Amino acid sequence: MTDLTPGFQGRRRAVDDRVPPGQYLTDDFPVLSAGPTPSVKTDRWTFTVTSETGERRVWTWDEFAALPHETPTVDIHCVTRWSKLDTTWRGVSADTLLAGLETQADYVVVHSFDGYTTNLPFRDITDGRAWVATGYDGRPLHAEHGGPARFLVPHLYFWKSAKWVSGITLHTEDRPGFWERAGYHDYGDPWLEQRYQAGF
Asked: Where is the Oxidoreductase molybdopterin-binding domain (predicted)?
């Protein structure tokens, strides 16, 4: 198994420049979910990528563990206004999962074992901007934080980083997910305070 760390070097921005407007810093890791925490056993866990043409790639837990892993350190921002800096994760880049896949998709939907979904532009999960994370802070990811695996898209509000992830489907059109259908912003950029759709 190979451990890779993205090559982002140089001086970090000052803390004030790393906290989006309307957010406050926390040292805790608040637990927020749309429903109860499911029990997802690794011996039954799979992750599936399905293209818009129906092509499927499926990994078991052991097969997924054998893929190249990275250890990104990122800032995360919740729509409920907390931000946590310098969080360290371990997971597989979405680029690795999509490598060599023929697709014309512009959007993806992330799926979770509890039925939760969230939508993203395809470009927002490529070029080293998204991972399927199985570890946090040097340990296996706890169930309350989405373990055994969650999606990690740190440049968007954290509801886009779906917990208990089971796969992604690729689409040529946008398909809003659970919170987006309930009035949350379709994109969710914390720097633009894109919390809710117009009218909510």
From this structure: 35-179
Read off the pLDDT band of 200 (50, 70, 90).
Answer: low
pTM of the model: 0.89
Give the DSSP letter string of the chain.
--EE-----SPPPPGGGGS-TT-EE-SS-----SSPPP---TTT-EEEEE-TT--EEEEEHHHHHTS-EE--EEEEE-TTSEEEEEEEEEEEEHHHHHTT-----SEEEEEETTS-EEEEEGGGGSSS--EEEEEETTEEPPGGGTTT-EEE-TTS-GGGS-SSEEEEEEESS----HHHHTTB-SS--GGGT--B-TT-
Bridge-based pairing state of the strands 46-50 and 165-171: parallel
User: Please, what is the average pLDDT of the chain?
Assistant: 92
| CATH topology classification for 44-192 | Sulfite Oxidase; Chain A, domain 2 (3.90.420)
User: Which tokens in the block code for residue 188?
Assistant: 């969710």
